[in-house]
Every structure is written in structure tokens, then in C-alpha cells.
Amino acid sequence: MAKQNIFKKQLPLILVAATGILLATIYFVYRGITRNKCDSVFEQTADRVGGSLEVIKIKGSLILGQEKVQELTEGSQKVALHLKTCCIAQQGGNMNGEQFQSCISGAKDYETKIAQVATSINEAQAAEQQGNTQLAQQKTEQARQYASAATTTEKSLGEMTKTLSAAVPVKAGAEQEANDTILQANTAEMGTNIAGAIALGDVDFFQFQYRDAKNRRDIVTVHLENKSATLQPSMALYSEDKSEARGWSGPNAAGANWDFSFSAEPGKKYFVAVSSYYGRTSGNYILSVVPQKAYDQYEPNDDASTATVIKFGQSAEANIMDGPDTDWYRLSGVNGNTVSVHLENQSTTLQPSIRVLNADKSEARGWDYPNAPGADLTFSFPTTPGQEYFLEVSSYYGRTVGKYKVSTH
Ligand SMILES: [Ca+2]
Ligand SMILES: [Ca+2]
Ligand SMILES: [Ca+2]
């Protein structure tokens, strides 16, 4: 390659220049990017510190100690990796110019210090051979200081690249590009409005955490308000583990809004992705992700330990909010030999299912259910006066949701 040959001829000149190392670094990084291979950035960084590192490895253990030599060897590999990370981030548009520049100067700084360590080691050894003990000690101390400084530089470069993959929050209610991948998702709060814009082929990822003081699940509604006549939105939902929870969907027309809901687990994170249908349209939008407080007043009561206490003859109005919802009631004050349970369906959707358990949670009466959604359910079961019973209300196979009123007679 002609470009490479010219560079080789000019190499000594560049190295004597004050900014030589910086230029070389930029050149190598630039070449890496143009070849679209951040791997070469990694190799070239390792190559450049290679000479100094050889000196440190061969002569350094007496002066610095084997442990420090090891640290510098590993540090050099890490710096090369950090630079590669920066290169990838830069290519992915996940890093601004200022960040990229400080990444390059960090690597340059490290290379300089490693070279200084090697020089000091050479000088210390030469002074030792000439019998100049004082100078030898001075150079040894210098080598140690440069070595510590190099390690510090490597660590701060490491910290910087670590933050590269960290999520950027939504600022002043607006999305922050680049947010095209799930790793770049803007963190945002539920219940707020986020202004965003989809360019052709653009994707915007947002990350939300659902929290509830009582650890209740809730139905969360995702709403995209279309602020353009051009955008045909398409949206998807991902779980905390980044698996797809709800595939891409959207309206069949440009300019239309889009909604969907999902059941959120307390403490869990969710990712919402906004794009355009096949990446073909663009436009502005407002996104909101809002918990609906859809749970009934007795939640959480999904197990015996959190069962809602009802006295014989009392009733409770509640709902089966989502598939996993099951409502436990602890029935007390039973004074006869039979109890009649009536579930009044207050929805057209719910196909309820109820079973009865003894106080020790053994099953007293198996699951009973009407044949169709929207239907009521009535049954009786034998009781021992003074005993408590659990009523477990759910939906048939967890498939339907809706409001109900349960009462005992
Ligand atoms: Ca985007
Ligand atoms: Ca419920
Ligand atoms: Ca429940």
C-alpha cells in the first residue's frame, strides 16, 4: 500500500516532532476506522508500546519488582482494548468528539509513560554500571513513579470506557441520540412525556423501571402521540433481560397514534423501542409510559399469607387484573355447616374460577368455573363452625381479566 510506504519513510520525522505520538495515534485510529476494523486499532496500540514493554520485561523486575512488570504488561493490553472500545463506540455514534479525543489522549499518555519507564530503567542500569549509585537510585525512583502514573492512566481510561455503555437519561423531556440500540437506551421515568424524532431508518430505545411501594403488579400503557402527518410508527417491548416481550406493531397509516399495554412486575425494567414501519417514514412523536393503577384495593393478595380477610356474610369487590392475578380471601366467622359462595361477574370478559382451601391450605373444594366469560358462579361447600377457610379467586387458566364481586351466605 502506497500510503503505508510514505508513512514508513516519514515515521522517524514524525516521532521526533513534539506531537509525534499523538499524530501516530490519530493516524492509526483513523486508518482503523477507514478500514472499518477496530481490531487493527487494538493490534497497533499493542505494537507501539511493544518496544518499551520489552525493555521493562527484560530489565524491569530488579528495579520495579515482578509484580509491577506484570501490571504494566497487562495494563498495556487493557489500554489497547480501551482504545478499541472507543473506536467501536465512535463508529456506532455512541461517543461524541470530545469523548473520543480524551480517549485518544489517554492512550497517548499511557504510551508516553511506558516509554518513560523504559528510559528510566535503561538510565538506572547505566548509572549502576558506572558506579553512580545516587543517580541509579534517582532513576529507579523515577521509573517507579512513571509506572504508577501509567497504571493510574490505564484505570481512568478504563472508567471512561465503562461509562460508554452506560445508559444516558432523557434530558428535559427529550430523547438523547444516539439511542438506536437497546444498549444505548435512554433511561426515563414512567408517567412522563418524552419528545422524540424518528429519522429514516432510525430506532429510539427507552428504558423504564416499574416501581410500587406495595410491590403490586400493574398494567402499564404505552402511548405514542404522533406529532407528524408523515410518521407511520412501529413499536416493540423488551423485558429486563432484553428478550422480546411484545413484537413490533403499529397503526396501518402514517400520522396515526399507537397504544399498547403490558403487565409490569414491581422492580423490573422494561425497554420500549420506537421506530417507523420498515424504517421508511420519519416524524416527531411524544411517548408516554404510564402505570394505570389497575390493581384492585386488596392487592397484593396473590397468596395465603397476604389473603384479604372477609367475615362470613361480607362481600368484596375486586378484579382479576392480569393472567397471573389470583385473589386470596380468608373467610372467618363461619358458624354453620355450609357456606354458599356467589361470584357476581361485573365484566363481560372474565371467566372466573374459584377453589376453597382449609385453614392448613389443603384443598377443600377444587376449582369451579362457569362455562363462559361474563357468567356468574355460585356453589356451596360443607363447613365446620369456627373454622377458617381460604377462597382463591382466579380466571380459568389465567386467560381472562375483569371485575367481580364475591360474597358469602
Ligand atoms: Ca435513535
Ligand atoms: Ca386482583
Ligand atoms: Ca391478587
Task: Please tell me about this protein's structure.
Helix 3 packs antiparallel against helix 4, helix 3 packs parallel to helix 5 and helix 5 packs antiparallel against helix 6. About 2% of the residues have low confidence. This protein has a five-stranded mixed β-sheet, with no helix packed on it. By secondary structure, it is of the alpha+beta class. It has three domains: 150 residues, no CATH class; 124 residues, Jelly Rolls (Sandwich), CATH 2.60.120.380; 105 residues, Jelly Rolls (Sandwich), CATH 2.60.120. It starts with a helix and ends with a strand. The longest helix is centred in the first third of the chain and has 33 residues. The chain has six helices and 18 strands. The relative contact order is 0.08. A hairpin with a 5-residue loop joins strand 5 and strand 6.
